[in-house]
Design brief:
It holds the Pfam family NAPRTase_C. Belongs to the NAPRTase family. It is a single chain. The chain has 480 residues and is α/β, with parallel strands linked by helices. The chain has two domains: 280 residues, nicotinate phosphoribosyltransferase; 179 residues, Aldolase class I (TIM Barrel, Alpha-Beta Barrel). It has 16 helices and 21 strands. The strands form four sheets. Strands 13-12-1-5-3-19-20 form a seven-stranded antiparallel sheet. Strands 7-6-11-10-9-8 form a six-stranded parallel sheet. Strands 17-16-21-15-14-18 form a six-stranded mixed sheet.
Length: 480
C-alpha cells in the first residue's frame, strides 16, 4: 500500500470533545455504528465513482498520537489525563465494511460502515470524509471527462492548479480511477505506478532565438518521443511548418514517434488544418493533443464539430472539479450497541430530505436475471433475508411514488469486510486494476443513467423491514 502521513490530528475539535465525553461518560464496551454516504451528485449526474478507500483504511491503520500531539492537546486545557492516556494507547478496535473502490454509488446508500467503540469511531469522521469526498469527487469528474472523449486518451495535467500537494497527488490517483490514462505529475506517477506524460512549455521556445532552433534542440535531446508545442507564435504559419521540418529531419534518421500539442485558439479549425497539413506532408501518424481549460462539455462540442484530436490534456477542470467542487459526503450514527443489544438511531431534522436510515445495513445491487443488467440498488438490514419477490420503498424520503414491486432479480451485496481492527480484509490493488473494475461496473448500468446531461435516475430502494424500523424510530422520537 502507498504510504501517507499519520492523520490523527486531521480532525475537527468537536470530534475530540465528543470522544473525550464518550470515554468519560460511557462504558468502554458501548459501541456505535456509523454510515458514510452522500445525498446529491456533483454536476447533476446520477452517480459517484467511489475512490479513496485504500487511503482511508490505511489512515485508520496508521491512526496514532505522538508525544508532541498529546502535548498540543494537553495545552488546549480541554481534556483530562485519562483521555490523553486513551489516545496515547490508541489502537483501532473497529470493524469496517466498505464498497469496493471504483464502484458507481448512488445517493443515500452507505458505502462505508464503521462499528466499534464510540470514543474511537467518532474520531474517524473528519479524516474519512476528507479522504473519500475528495478522491470520489475527482474520480467522478474524470469519468465524465473521459466519457466525453469517446475513447481518446485523457492525460491529467492539473498539479499546478490543485489545492495543495496532497490534492495534486491523490487527485491524480483518483483521475486514473475515473478513466484517465496518464498524469503529468511525476510524484503521483512514481507513487501509484502511473504512466507519466508531458511535452514542453512556451518558455522553452521563447528561450531560443527562433522557434525552429527550439524545436531542433528538443528533437536532438528527445528524438525517440518528440512532441512539440506549436502555438507559441502562429500555429499555421510558423509552429506547424517548423514542426514538420523537424519531423522530416528525424524521419530521415529513422525516428517515427512524433506529436504536436495545441494549447490555444480555435481548437476545431486549427486541429483540422493541422491534420490536413500533416497528412499532406506524409505524417498521418503524428498525434494531435489539445489542452487549455478543457472540460466534458468543451470536449463534447469539439468532437461534434469534427475537431481532429487524438488526445486531451485536462488540468484545472479535472483536478479541482471546478464546475461542481464539493461532494458532501456525511458520517451519521445509525445505531449504538449496549450490553450486546443493537439500538437503532436516526437523524430526523426539520428537513425530510436529511432523514437517515437506522440500524446496521447491507446494500445490494440488483441485476435482471435475463439480461444481467443492473437496474436498482436495495438497502436492507444486515441480518435480513431478501425475498425472491418483494414490495420495496424508495430510499429518497421525498419520492412522489415511493412503492415498487420487485421480482426476477439477482442481488449482489456491495458492502464487504474491509478492516477488522488492525487486520486488513481487502488486498491492495493497482490503480489501473481499480479503473478496469470501475469500467466493468459502469458497463452494467443502464446507458441512460450515464448521460452527461439529464441522466435517468438509477433507483435506490429500502426493504419493508428497514422502512418499518425507520418509521418506528421516528414515532419514538416524535413523542418528545
Amino acid at each position: 500500500m502507498s504510504q501517507i502521513d499519520n492523520l490523527a490530528l486531521l480532525t475537527d475539535l468537536y470530534e475530540f470533545s465528543m470522544s473525550a465525553g464518550f470515554q468519560k461518560a460511557l462504558s468502554q464496551n458501548e459501541e456505535g455504528v456509523f454510515d458514510v454516504f452522500y445525498r446529491s451528485v456533483p454536476d447533476k449526474g446520477s452517480f459517484v465513482i467511489l475512490a479513496g478507500i485504500e487511503q482511508a483504511l490505511q489512515a485508520i491503520q496508521d491512526f496514532s498520537f505522538s508525544a508532541e500531539d498529546l502535548d498540543y492537546l494537553r495545552s488546549l486545557d480541554l481534556y483530562d489525563e485519562s483521555f490523553l492516556e486513551f489516545l496515547m494507547n490508541f489502537e483501532n478496535k473497529c470493524t469496517i465494511w466498505a464498497v469496493q473502490e471504483g464502484t458507481p454509488i448512488f445517493p443515500r446508500e452507505p458505502f462505508m460502515t464503521i462499528k466499534g467503540p464510540l470514543a474511537q469511531a467518532q474520531l474517524y469522521e473528519t479524516m474519512l470524509l476528507n479522504i473519500i469526498n475528495h478522491q470520489s469527487l475527482i474520480a467522478t469528474k474524470a469519468r465524465r471527462i473521459t466519457a466525453s472523449a469517446e475513447g481518446r486518451p485523457v492525460m491529467e495535467f492539473g498539479a499546478r492548479r490543485a489545492q495543495g500537494p496532497s490534492s495534486a497527488v491523490l487527485g491524480a490517483r483518483a483521475a486514473i480511477i475515473g478513466g484517465a490514462k496518464s498524469t503529468s505529475n511525476v510524484l503521483a506517477a512514481k507513487k501509484f505506478n502511473i504512466p507519466v506524460t508531458g511535452t514542453m512549455a512556451h518558455s522553452w521556445i521563447e528561450a531560443f532565438d527562433s522557434e525552429l532552433e527550439a524545436f531542433r534542440t528538443w528533437a536532438d535531446i528527445y528524438p525517440t518521443h518528440c512532441s512539440l508545442l506549436v502555438d507559441t507564435y502562429d500555429i499555421l504559419k510558423s509552429g506547424l511548418p517548423n514542426a514538420i521540418t523537424v519531423f522530416q529531419e528525424l524521419k530521415a534518421k529513422g525516428y517515427h514517434n512524433f506529436g504536436i500539442r495545441i494549447d490555444s485558439g480555435d481548437i476545431t479549425a486549427l486541429s483540422c488544418s493541422c491534420r490536413q497539413m500533416l497528412d499532406q506532408a506524409g505524417f498521418p501518424d503524428v498525434k494531435i493533443t489539445v489542452s487549455n481549460s478543457l472540460n466534458e462539455h468543451i470536449i463534447t462540442s469539439l468532437l461534434r464539430e469534427g475537431a481532429q484530436i487524438d488526445a486531451f490534456g485536462v488540468g484545472e477542470e479535472l483536478i479541482t472539479s471546478s464546475s461542481s467542487p464539493v461532494l458532501s459526503g456525511v458520517y451519521k450514527l445509525a445505531a449504538v450497541v449496549k450490553n450486546g443489544d443493537l439500538i437503532p438511531k436516526i437523524k430526523m431534522s426539520a428537513s425530510r430530505g436529511k432523514l437517515t436510515l437506522p440500524g446496521l445495513k447491507q446494500v445490494y445491487r440488483l441485476y435482471n436475471e435475463e439480461t444481467n443488467q443492473a437496474f436498482a440498488d436495495l438497502i436492507a438490514l444486515q441480518d435480513e433475508t431478501l425475498m425472491d419477490a418483494m414490495q420495496v420503498i424508495k430510499a429518497d424520503p421525498l419520492a412522489i411514488q415511493p412503492n415498487f414491486y420487485l421480482d426476477n432479480f439477482r442481488a449482489v451485496p456491495l458492502l464487504t469486510p474491509a478492516l477488522d481492527q488492525q487486520d486488513l480484509q481487502v488486498p491492495a490493488a493497482d490503480v489501473f486494476q481499480i479503473q478496469a473494475f470501475s469500467q466493468e461496473k459502469l458497463s452494467e448500468l443502464p446507458k441512460e443513467t450515464q448521460r452527461l446531461l439529464n441522466p435517468d435516475e438509477f433507483p435506490v430502494y429500502i426493504t419493508p423491514q428497514l422502512y418499518a424500523l425507520q418509521q418506528a424510530v421516528i414515532a419514538k422520537h416524535s413523542r418528545f
